[in-house]
Amino acid sequence: xxxxxxxxxxxxxxxxxxxxxxxxxxxxxxxxxxxxxxxxxxxxxxxxxxxxxxxxxxxxxxxxxxxxxxxxxxxxxxxxxxxxxxxxxxxxxxxxxxxxxxxxxxxxxxxxxxxxxxxxxxxxxxxxxxxxxxxxxxxxxxxxxxxxxxxxxxxxxxxxxxxxxxxxxxxxxxxxxxxxxxxxxxxxxxxxxxxxxxxxxxxxxxxxxxxxxxxxxxxxxxxxxxxxxxxxxxxxxxxxxxxxxxxxxxxxxxxxxxxxxxxxxxxxxxxxxxxxxxxxxxxxxxxxxxxxxxxxxxxxxxxxxxxxxxxxxxxxxxxxxxxxxxxxxxxxxxxxxxxxxxxxxxxxxxxxxxxxxxxxxxxxxxxxxxxxxxxxxxxxxxxxxxxxxxxxxxxxxxxxxxxxxxxxxxxxxxxxxxxxxxxxxxxxxxxxxxxxxxxxxxxxxxxxxxxxxxxxxxxxxxxxxxxxxxxxxxxxxxxxxxxxxxxxxxxxxxxxxxxxxxxxxxxxxxxxxxxxxxxxxxxxxxxxxxxxxxxxxxxxxxxxxxxxxxxxxxxxxxxxxxxxxxxxxxxxxxxxxxxxxxxxxxxxxxxxxxxxxxxxxxxxxxxxxxxxxxxxxxxxxxxxxxxxxxxxxxxxxxxxxxxxxxxxxxxxxxxxxxxxxxxxxxxxxxxxxxxxxxxx
Length: 680
What we know:
- The protein is an alpha+beta fold.
- It folds into three domains: 30-346, TolB, C-terminal domain (Neuraminidase); 362-455, Serine Threonine Protein Phosphatase 5, Tetratricopeptide repeat (Alpha Horseshoe), CATH 1.25.40; 474-656, no CATH class.
- Helix content is 45%, strand content 20%.
- The chain is built from 17 helices and 27 strands.
- The strands form eight sheets. A four-stranded antiparallel β-sheet has the order 3-27-26-25. It has a four-stranded antiparallel β-sheet with strand order 6-7-8-9, with no helix packed on it.
- Helix 5 (365-378) runs antiparallel to helix 6 and helix 14 (568-577) runs antiparallel to helix 16 (601-627).
- Residues 1-27 have low confidence and may be disordered.
């Protein structure tokens, strides 16, 4: 045994070295992998896919500006070799199988393999769709539809093609904004346009349409919807397509009616290809070199890849034109500029995520918990794993655990559903106690009210305090309660009877600030607009008091030059006192929001609308009464005040830009001086 110890030690060292080397290889990939947290931010995660092979040719046949690629059921790779006007067929190891189409194809830009192994090719220059057998024999050709419904001036320049199980051909034509063209493969009949993109109209265009004359509008360039970039069809017949440009739906999953059933936020404006995996997961390739993987419902799992900087590193692309997935979930990516195909294999981490997702989608919720928990153990920032775990807990009726997981995932809809169930369970268990407490509270209020009306304890006590100690400050603070029943009389008393005070208004301003902070950070989780654990009290304080100063100061200046009778003290005090409904009801609204779900969201919205409308009406009355304006004059003053506030904000922004540019100039001059001094 002692003699074997050195060999055992060497073996352990070797295993340790191999493990560390493997980890370094994975960590030192040329690209990083990211996922998306519950707030839509990219966070780095473990590598999901690693490059397995790089294919630059099939046998001795090189690619030239290849634009599309598909994988057949037997694992062969079909490439639209655009530059050479042909279709190349090869194996994942780079072996040449066949080529076809040289005699008819001119510039093939898209291809699709149908369910019956027919190869459909879109040719941009020929202006036709060609159908070939798997062996490369031409069996059909589809040209420009001659139907009146197609349109006399509509373009038919096929770029991409797809075919469903009913033998309906879907064609994307360059410059045809009417939608995806549908043609029946058996009869060649034009079936119509399918799912056109919505027209993207900028705010500037809306403004121009509102103020321009008919003659000016006629000279404007017509706004047409963007043409789709690529499309695909899954086994269920759902059509997937991607489009490029701003203010368009970059990814769409279309039902038979052409409606998009996918709600996905996409930050990339240049998607070029879309593919469906074995889990119904969606892969999207971007022209900039990034590959995105989404679940079937549109949740981002991974994004990896990137733009090649000229060093020819694997995993990066110069122009990513197409992606395809085989039956083993190997991902193939076609770079049209570098004329090569890179294949990616999922790592153990990606397979773990896929296993958990597969179990959940198959209804094996209990079995999916373990892999979800393992994903979280490996990466606690992988929020989608928390969402999947929460869904599994919810389906298993473990609502408290689901509530916690959804909170970690920042998944508001799931949290609302889970809290609904948790609240129902609590209500069933404590309903009698709750009823007894409410009855006791009502009885106590009635008894106290009876004794107060009979003996006037509180009134005598407050009268004694005010007469003995002359607490003017407290009287001014509690004078705000008159705003509820008699706002006009209250404003009159502030202006002419010395009721209320600027000091008391400042006290209520501080209370207003506290309620604003509590509302922002402690409203119910599903109704909150800030992220958990993130506080910006400095910025909040500056914005709050800056806005108060801007509103009050602007209104006072405008009323002063328009014969207003209110002093700054009166305007300031009246403005703050106008928030009485906010002081009275907002704390209860904040408290109740922590016990509501989306099913009762309308109650919260209604309560907030009533409070804010009430405050706005009181401010309107304050401006009118304190300055002795008519209703028309008051409206005019408010509009001018808003305009002045806009001018002040723009002026401050311009000053800020000038100061920043001046500081940058000073810093650059200083750095230049230091550089020249050091190189003397």
